[in-house]
Sequence to fold (190 residues):
Amino acid sequence: MLDMLYSHMRSLAPIDDDVLSALDAHWGEVSFKRKDTITVEGNTEKYLYFVLDGVQRAFTVKNGKDATLIFSYKGSFSGVLDSFLLQEPSKYHLEALTSSKMLRLHHAVFIDVLHKHRALETWVRIALTRVLAGTLDRNIELLSYSAEEKFKVLLKRSPQVLNLIPHKYLASYIGVDPTTFSKMLSTIKL
Fold:
């Protein structure tokens, strides 16, 4: 399990074995059932998660409308990252869309290892820069692309989503209602 996590971490940025060793004993395995709430909007995120199996989504509900912000799945980090890092109340919910098995690391341990190992701080900076770049790309999609273009970009970036994620959540992610998504799905050549 840790091999998958550390391989993913190394794919984001170089990190020394001694830093990973300092984290070894602190990752705990946790499981969630389908539709379990992992983080509630308004609560502070206490854990950083790494997905071993399953699919999760971060979402918010405003004016009665459900808006999916991001998906996480096997081999990726999960959790409400801004709440975790800032230790402020979450602006989003995180739920398990499917039964999920994850590793989790408590915030206090993360901060302790961060203070003891400058290399982890460097890794976090590089990883967060990658997240920021992806967020800016997503903003361009949201502001400039048609629903069809958003859908095509999503499938190019993560082709597995059609088989992993219920279509109503994909519709929410690209900003259309499920009926429009269904029509779009039948007209787009995959």
User: Anything to note?
Assistant: The chain has a mean pLDDT of 93.
